[in-house]
């Protein structure tokens, strides 16, 4: 429907039915979108809750890698660790 030419349009039974059908389609889509929005809000709230739980869990413990995890494969007599090698190269 063109609002500018409403006066020129005659509202027949067919046109009224067509408008009602369009309104029903738009209403159904709106309800579907409302449902999707509600589901997204719920998922967002759950994600935020999970994030806060992970933050508090992470803040409760110290994360320090074991030195052996940083070991560079090679001679076992004098082990070389990556962080030591990086520090030596940086300081040189």
Describe the structure.
The protein has 92 residues and is mainly alpha-helical. The chain has two helices and two strands; from the N terminus they run αββα. The protein has helices spanning 13-60, 82-91, and strands spanning 71-72, 80-81. The chain has a two-stranded antiparallel sheet with strand order 1-2.
Task: Output the keywords.
single chain; 92 residues; mainly alpha; 2 helices; 2 strands; rod-shaped
Structure at a glance:
By secondary structure, the chain is mainly alpha-helical.
- Any low-confidence stretches, pLDDT <50, length ≥5? none
Neighbour order of strands in the largest sheet:
1-2
Strand content is: under 5%
Q: Helix and strand string, N-terminal first?
A: HEEH
Could you give the distance between the termini?
A: 78 Å
The helix/strand class is mainly alpha
Number of helices: 2
Mean pLDDT: 80
User: How many β-strands, per DSSP?
Assistant: 2
What's the alpha carbon Rg, rounded to whole Å? 33 Å
Helix content: 55-70%
